[in-house]
Amino acid sequence: MQVVRERDALVIGAGFSGLYMLLCLRDRLGLDAEVLEMAGGVGGTWYWNRYPGARCDSESYSYCYGFSPELLAQWEWSERYPGQAEILRYLDHVADRFDLRRSISFDTKVVAAEYDAAANKWLVRTAGGDAVRCTWLITAVGCLSSANVPDLPGLEGFAGQWFHTGLWPQEGVDFSGKRVGQIGTGSTGIQSVPVIAEQAGHLTVFQRTANFSIPARNAPLTPAFKQHVKDHAGAIRALMVSTPNGHPFAINPRRVFDVDAAERERIFEEGWARGGLQFRAAFHDLLVDQAANDEAASFIKRKIRAVVADPATAALLADIDHPFAAKRPPIDSDYFEAFNRDNVRLVDVRADPIAAVTPGGVRLASGREFALDIIVFATGFDAMTGPLLRMDIRGRDGLALKDAWAAGPETYLGLQVAGFPNLFTMTGPGSPSVLCNMPVAIEQHAEWIADCIAHVRARGLRTVEATVEAAEAWGRQVAAAAAATLLPKATHSWYLGANVPGKPRVFMPYAGGMARYREHCAEVAAAGYDGFALGG
Ligand code: NA7
User: Fold this and answer.
1) Stretch 143-168: mean pLDDT, rounded?
2) Residue 328 CA: which ligand 1 atom is closest?
3) pTM value surpassing 0.85
4) What's the pLDDT band for 536 if we cut at 50, 70, 90?
5) I need a labelling partner for 75 at 20 to 30 A (CA). Which of 51, 305, 369, 504 fits?
6) Distance 494 CA to ligand 1 centre (A)
7) Which atom of ligand 1 is nearest to the CA of 380?
8) Domain range spanning residue 498?
9) In 10 A of CB 461, how many CB atoms?
10) Which atom of ligand 1 is nearest to the CA of 499?
């Protein structure tokens, strides 16, 4: 192992979070900072997720950085929800505009990082066998970047092709005339079904858990709307930082039973017509009151039955076992409509699970077989902790992160782990992260981390480390915030780690809302970084 260079700060990952973190450290703090990125380009999740239909569920004009008024004024989104290619173009533009590329090493995968207490340095090792030493180490590895491919017997002997949506080939996949099987009906699967269905000879969708979905109502943005966004940029950002989810629309303060049944139906219809996550914002108690949630759930199930022509397929699609939005609520473009096509079939793999992949396709437990040329795994990710734990990160006295988190992740503010000095985890477990419009959560983290490092340096100190007590107390707050909602009722969600066999069941993101979290982090900083030990 060769120590190839020393840096003040290293950032792992060049997605939304890594790019802005680099800018804060290098250009604002004047540190010698570098990003290590395993991909061949910037973009993080948007570099890898090139599957058919890949699109963000945040509205485009809010799914971007807000730190630079010039950048905001300059960039124009073309559609209401940005597609993968357009987001990647945006991040490429940001990397060029702020001259970030010269500080990024691409095709450089970090495999391990170890803290050397005597030197107060992190030694970061790459798959290429090099080591880089740094004082400050920031993980910007994303929450949904560690692909979860189910361990199905026989997959290695499959004679056709198979792909995971999160590791999609850059050159794309030709589905024309092919018999395609898609496993998974989460946000990703719901986006890809209609697009694959249009291209493929035949598409079989294997559904284990039926899911709610709201029509996205995606459309090109009009010149008038683009102008409106430019003219009101300040007010839009102010609204975004004041809402619990970082979106550019407020949650209506009324409750579901504040209005009578007819008015409720009218409001749901209005939300359905507006589309996307704005449907959820029609009432403020949808995620805290089961009876209120039941009303929304029943409305959506009626819509599914109205759209899907075959009653048996409709019944299967509407047989949803969790509260609306307790799993991440997908938004779609003609998902349920796709099941009215002659070349699309839905198969219930809850009743009859997938037993094996055969050379010619998929076999269910009952022995039923499906002949396939291509299998698409839309089976999600080892979320939030996966991207961190697949690196061998060791803190004080060789403590491995995987041991520190054996019972589930424990962090202080989702920003630091006790026993791992000078290591910061952007949008880590215990922060709002995936419950928030991500760029909003990311900017707050990058700025808070940069301010913290500046504070430590300005006082001639060398280390900052969450205390065990603060991390434990924060863990209790994260659990309490989730328990105050219906979110834990979706017992098989990836928020809880339930989608990965053997993963501890801990509700990972902080559900108390981004606005409250931001305030809390600011108070911690103002109190001299309360709960962090600052060392000399
Ligand atoms: P998700 O939301 O985790 O969805 C994965 C889907 O795959 C879900 O329907 C799973 O069913 C299904 N799945 C996983 N393993 C299997 C097996 N073995 N057999 C059958 N079905 C399976 O991942 P997505 O990629 O859709 O979305 C992740 C986030 O990325 C999304 O929220 C956006 O933020 C972007 P299950 O529900 O576990 O029964």
Assistant:
1) 97
2) 32
3) yes
4) confident
5) 51
6) 8
7) 23
8) 2-146+383-535
9) 12
10) 38
Cβ contact 139:110 at 8 Å: no
Residue 397 contacts residue 203 (beta carbons within 8 Å): no
Looking at 2-11, 260-269, 278-287, which range is the least confident one?
2-11
User: How many domains are contained in the chain?
Assistant: 2
Q: Quick check: 323 pLDDT over 80?
A: yes
Atom 15 of ligand 1, residue of closest alpha carbon: 379
pLDDT higher than threshold 80 for residue 298? yes
* CATH number of domain containing 404: 3.50.50.60
DSSP 37-92: -SSSSS-THHHH---TT-B-SS-GGGSS--S-HHHHHH---SBSS-BHHHHHHHHH
Indicate whether 89 and 220 sit together in one domain: no
CA of 191 to the centre of ligand 1 (A): 12
- Three-class secondary structure assignment of 290-337: HHHHHHHHHHHHHHHHHHCCCHHHHHHHCCCCCCCCCCCCCEECCHHH
Would you state the pLDDT for residue 477? 98
Using the mean position of ligand 1's atoms as its centre, give its distance from the Cα of residue 183 in Å.
8
Residues 176 and 318 in one domain: yes
Q: If you take atom 2 of ligand 1, which residue's CA is the nearest one?
A: 186
Residues with CB under 6 A from ligand 1: 144, 150, 183-189, 206, 208-209, 328, 349, 354, 378-381, 492, 494, 499
187 Cα: distance to centroid of ligand 1 (angstroms): 8
Closest listed residue to residue 481, CA positions, set 525, 505, 448, 516: 516
Q: Are residues 350 and 389 in the same domain?
A: no
Percent of the residues in the chain that have a pLDDT greater than 70, as a whole number = 100
Q: What is the mean pLDDT of the chain?
A: 97
For residues 225-252, give the mean pLDDT: 96
Name the residue with the closest Cα to ligand 1, atom 16: 379
Is the pLDDT reported for residue 241 higher than 80?
yes
Neighbours of 131 (CB within 10 A): 16
pLDDT of residue 193: 98
Residue 123: helix, strand or coil by DSSP?
strand
Residue 486 pLDDT > 70: yes
Residue 10 φ then ψ, to 5°:
-120, 140
Question: What is the structure's pLDDT at 1?
Answer: 65
- Residue 34 shares a structural domain with residue 93: yes
Ligand 1 atom index nearest CA of 152: 18
Site to substitute for ligand 1 among 187, 354, 492, most atoms within 8 A of C-beta: 187
Query: What pLDDT was estimated at residue 417?
Result: 98
Question: How many angstroms from the chain centroid is the CA of residue 123?
Answer: 28
Q: Which of 382, 499, 500 to mutate to test the pocket of ligand 1 (most atoms within 8 A of CB)?
A: 499
For residue 303, how far is its CA from the centre of ligand 1 (angstroms)? Answer: 22
**Mean pLDDT computed over 120-147:** 97
Task: Return the pLDDT at 4.
Answer: 84
